[in-house]
Amino acid sequence: MSLNEVPQNNGQGLRKVNGRPKIVVPEGSPSRNSDSASFTLEGDTSLNDDLLSISGSVTPRARRSSRMSLDSITPRRSFDSRTLSVANSRSFGFENETHSGSMDFSPLGNNSIYEIVMNTRRKNWLNYPTVADIPQVSLSKNDLDDHWKTHVREYVENIKSEYQIFQSTNNIRNMNQTEQLKELRDGENMNEELFEENIKQGDPGLISSVPNFYFSDDFQLDNPRTFHKVLDAIDLFLTKPDMKVQTRRDEAFFELRDKLTDYLDIVETLLVTEISKSSHKFFHALSEVDSIQKRAYDTLSKLEELAQNIKIIDGDNINKKISHLEMIFKRKNVEKLEQGLLQAKLVLNKTDECSIMYKENKFDNCLELIKSIDHLIKGDDSVNKDVQNWTRSWPYKLSNLKTIPSLSTTREFLTNMKIEIGGKFSLQLSNLLIDDLRSFCQSIEPNETLYRIQTGSNDKKQTIFTDKFSSEIGELIVKLNRCEELTSAFDLYREKSIMELKSVIKIHLPTENIHSDNKDVIVNTHDEKQPNNGSTSGSKLSRLIKEQTPAEFQSMLLKIFTHALEALRRLYGHQKLLLDISLNELASVKSPNENQHNMITQLDIRTGINEIIRIIQLRTGKIIAVRRELNLSLRYDYFLKFYAICVLFIQECEVLSGEFLTKYLSNVLASQIKYYASAQSSKNYRNIKKKIDAEEWVPYIVDPSIQSDVNDIVSSIDIDPLSWTAILDMTGNFSVHENDISDTSSGKRKNEGDEASQGHRKSVVVGDKTFVASSSLLAAIEVIKELMALSINLPSIYLSNFEKLCYDMLQYYNNSAMASVTQPGNSLLKTGRNLSIMGESLDCLAEFVIIVQRFYQRLSNSSRDFEPFDPSHYTSLLEQYQASSNKIYTANAPPLPA
Length: 898
Prior knowledge:
It is found in: Golgi apparatus, trans-Golgi network. This protein has five domains: about 1-90 and about 125-135 and about 150-200, no CATH class; about 205-265, no CATH class; about 290-405, no CATH class; about 445-500 and about 560-635, no CATH class; about 665-890, no CATH class. Helices cover about 60% and strands about 5% of the residues. It has helices spanning about 50-60, 110-120, 150-160, 160-170, 175-185, 190-200, 225-230, 245-275, 280-360, 365-380, 385-390, 410-440, 445-455, 465-480, 485-510, 535-545, 550-590, 595-600, 605-625, 630, 635-655, 665-695, 705-715, 720-725, 775-795, 800-820, 835-860, 870-890, and strands at about 15, 20, 510-515, 520-525, 765, 770. The strands form three sheets. It has a two-stranded antiparallel sheet with strand order 1-2. A hairpin with a 2-residue loop joins strand 5 and strand 6 (about 770). Helix 21 (about 635-655) runs antiparallel to helix 22. The longest helix has about 80 residues, at about 280-360.
């Protein structure tokens, strides 16, 4: 058989026919047309046949149209033949069954339904597509047979032989290309001329029949001009969608399709021709690949052997060098160990030096040495000059000895020493501040403190410090910061300041005088140490407080409060000074640690000052509570001074601290006022009853001070009298005399009987009215003045109590006076007394009823907490007084003329 014979396919892969190797085409390969199924090339065939067969067997291409793929066809008998059957011809892109797959028309790919519904191609349609235009899509069912795995295995067994043939022909490297080429060239003595003749079988001139615009780089089918060129005057009747011209449309379509198919065949034929010219060179190059690959394998084997030899040689050299380096490292490690031992020894020696300095009280030098030893233990010689000088000649970097157990005792010793030094510095700081606190309080008199508080002046003395004092404080704070004991020093000062302020109360408490060996020994009861009988000491102190006179007790409170207030002022000055110096010191540290930042919030001694205020108020409240019953007998003006002292202290504490820290002292004072107001009722009744029982109803000498009090009572209807408001004024010399224990008028004035010879007037002027005075009338006026003065100076919540006291006292006076001269039959006694004097007294007090009503009415206008008596009460009281006056007048009236 000649070279031009067609290869035969017997299903067994590559075989020889008449001594020539042939490439087998698998059975069932589709042919180009109906004639090509059993067609055999006539005459000469070229190498293109073999190439096409190989290509078809290696890479078969899936076909979606009726046109056969180039890879699975054999050349036609004549390239000039353009006769194609309609049934097997290729369908053009305008056919409904095919789609371009372009994403420009359908984002779903080949989806004709989307293209029709969305009208992406034929946008010139007048109407939207109908249901008839949309092809029905039959969806496959997902039901699988239960025995689908068995069917798959059977199908695999059936196609196993064919798959083996495909594998053997799919990879061109599996073929013996070298032998095939030799048989192609030597077996048939094929000459070069015949080979060239077969190649020239395709006529390159046919390409000229294809229009040039198909080969343009900017060929765009969607361009209307290009599209009209492609149609080449063929009318597809696209503007007439009716079925009348369907036949003509199909004929035009097939004509256009056949013409384009011919153009495509011409191009493919030309490509096959050009590829075939170089096919023999391709097989030749392929045959050389195996040779090159074999030589590459040999080269790699030799390189691997060479690498092994080099590795052995290098391993010996490297092992020698490693052993040498190990010796060097070992020697350096020994040297480092020796240096570490020297470093530990130096730590111990410097620790001994530090201990000696501590015993010699060289705290500054000791503290600096401790700092250097700490750096030496840490192995840090970057910042400390002492460590640098000690280890300047050492060859290696210092080691960190903190984890060495043998030095834990030394480190603990240094830490304790630093704590003890810090404690000594803390004690020095506290003593210095306490001494300044004492000297400041001693330099200010109580009257000066009272004047400053009541006038509202702020002399800023508490923030004035000498330069020497500030310098000493600054040096101690620097030292405390170095030994990291600044916070504990401030805590110590807080505790000491609390103890110092506690002692302020102790030093002013009453003492007991013990006569022993003709000497008066003063013993502080509160300093007696009685661990087994503490209650006895407390009871003794309570007894001494109760034994104090009102003057002594109020003087004691005054001294405690003024001393404590000045101490608190100085403490706030200390707070500002300590904060300023300590914060500046912390800010000057180059590398502050986290503890220093957290320390800032602990340097404020305000919490200690607030605690002092609470303690002082608590203890003074307890002291006042001891004398609660005794304070009930105080005269009104001295009770108001006692009230003023306590209120001034409470208010000043609130001003200094900026907050109300405790209610204890305020509650004690409120309770004292409540009991004092309650006690006034029985006391007033008792005094009025005593005066009326002893009353002889004779004119009584009126002291000028009594008339002045009457004038104040009358003026109180419109304004608070200055003499009453001045009672709370603490700016003058405050003193209480021992004879002022009770609130009787004898404590303020001398006996009126002693003054009878002075010739004073015997009447009381109330406004524009004059009344003859009696002893009981003056006592009642004194009570009214006291109650009004208390009403003005005490909190407004007690106004209702004092108004009731005034009302009850006036009513009681009327009832008691009339009862003293009334017979059981409700007629006046003929006692020989001057009842007109009684009538004058009752008429005078009737004027005071109106004054009292108007006084409390005025106070109610400025107080929301007070609601005065209903005017009907006072009207009823005036009627009682009027009835009593009428009865007295009737009894004293002369008989009618006969």
